[in-house]
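REQUEST FORM: STRUCTURE PREDICTION
Request ID: SP-0412
Submitted by: Lab K.M.
Chain count: 1
Length (residues): 316
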Amino acid sequence: MHVRFPSSLRLSFFLLLGLPLFFLGGPSYHSSRSFAHLWNLGHILYFALFTRWLHLALVKRLATAIPAKKILILLLVIPFLIGLALEISQFLVTGRNPDIFDLLRNELGVALALAFAQQPLGLFLSKNWRRAIQGTAFLVLLATASPLVFALVDESLAVEEFPILSDFESSLELSRWMNPAQLQEETKIVRHGTQAARVQLSTNKYSGVSLFHFPGDWRGFSMLHFSVYNPLAFPLALNCRIHDTKHKLHGSLYHDRFNTIFELTPGWNDLAVSLKEVEDAPKERKMDMRHIEGFGLFVVQQKEPLSIVLDYVYLR
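STATUS: Completed
RESULT:
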């Protein structure tokens, strides 16, 4: 299989156009999952194009001077060093910490460019070996792109199911929450439907979960409902906080968001929050109910780790 690539001049244009994107733009803290995953895939595309440009513009000129295997080594090493330099430059310019996964995505782009180009692999590998490498690179690409697909599917479901914010009937919903590793699917203790989420809580000063990705326009609704199962034989204090996108502009202060404490009795607790109270909660302004950004539940300084069960988070 042979893929035709753009010329060296056109590749130079695309590479120069894309270079500033390593330092400007990109996903923010609350960007959608799909946008963040799509942005990360840009590393693969950029370094695939860069590797092909390197071959056309520089290394190919050395074909008569050095063996193909050495050319291949150059095509592997130079993009890696460029990627490493970009990660260090990002840290120096923007303060962003180097990401080993970005380096791995860079190398996947390099592998794809080499696998689907006729040279230099074709100079010393058989057709069967090249096809095997192409198939492997393509499978790795599919695995790398799968988080984007899952994010798009769940974001579509979230819009379709709204005003249900999270009912945990799909395992994809766990990624709507910050630190989804703290949540596990629960099928035995369930308040609604067939599944809930078991939330692992630690002995840290504050331990909990936050709904992070959800439709944020809560206008026209009066109540937020959710159910929490307390496995203890005694009451448990559960803190609840809600904030909008303007909260960080006001210093993320305690009195600039909605805060309340529920006392959970043993077993299931069906809880509700008045959205009028949420709107009036900030001390010096009104909550922007069109742009709700976060809903969190947490406990304070538990003596021992414990887990609670959360289910059926919805607006009404």
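NOTES: The chain has a mean pLDDT of 90.
Reviewed by: T.R.
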